[in-house]
Amino acid sequence: MNDDDLFDQIEQASASVRKAVGTFPKIAVTLGSGLGHLVDELRDARVLDYSEIPFFPVPTIAGHAGKLCTGLLGGVPVAMLQGRVHYYEGNGLDRVTFPTRVLQRLGVKSIILTAATGGVALNLHKGDLVCLTDHINGLGFNPLRGPNDDRFGTRFPDMSEVYSVHLRSVAHEEAMKLGITLKSGVYYAMPGPSYETPAEIRMLRTLGADVVGMSTVPEAIVARHGGINVLGFAMVTNAAAGVTGETIHHAEVLDVAEEAGKRLGKIIAAVVPKI
Ligand code: HPA
User: 163 exposed, middle or buried (CB, 10 Å; 0-12, 13-18, 19+)?
Assistant: First the structure.
């Protein structure tokens, strides 16, 4: 697909959202596995199925509903993306990051990304919440590869502070007030869909990873390219392969994410009015 085609698709998608929703919020939250229930906290909610938005990618896996919800959280307008598509579903990174581009065109200034992850660092345990300080792109591809479209951002965007220091400090402050433990760590993106081997996890730990997942990084890169501030949260849903010797099951990932998601939801609801 050439640049103009992609730009045109993004324009069509944003125009249709704008038509359905009216003024679009400046803050968006991408709800990963197990966090979908956060939309229940929205007041005056409006719900759009991704399938109603032209060209919007529709998730194929359990735990990702595929709905764009807008409403008020703590009195502040927010958009919530209930579910995302992943690289491992067979999508190119332009599809994976299509929703992020649509949010950019709709005028979103801050995005909160959430994801279920495996705990790579030995001080992280099942159920822990982690505020991302940085990431390592282990996908083998960059979503900005190809001709640069200057309407979105610059050719060589700086990535020295992907996850806003300011938003991180707000998150830690609000977590502390709520009495919820929030750790910090570096996210490593693997392509999936197979979970990692113990040898791979040892490698990732040596490389400086604290958590591992199959999303988040392409969205964060594209958001920064588009000048959007990013706050990232990981929920540790399992010890990464080889750490405890337990096998990893998607159903368990969803169960733990559900429980951890309740605590993370409280932090997000407290952070949004402070952005
Ligand atoms: N590895 C990669 N992605 C994940 C994991 C994991 O252990 N758990 C949840 N998402």
Answer: buried
Q: Per-residue pLDDT for 37 more than 90? A: no
What CATH number does residue 243 fall under?
3.40.50.1580
Range(s) of the domain holding residue 34: 3-274
Query: Atom 3 (ligand 1): residue with closest C-alpha?
Result: 213
Atom of ligand 1 nearest to the CA of 196: 1
Ligand 1 center from residue 178 Cα (angstroms)? 27
Which residue, judged by its Cα, is nearest atom 2 of ligand 1? 213
Index of the ligand 1 atom closest to the CA of residue 118: 7
In the chain, the number of structural domains is 1
Query: By percentage, how much of the chain surpasses pLDDT 90?
Result: 83
Q: What's the pLDDT at 127? A: 95
Average pLDDT rounded to a whole number, residues 217-223:
98
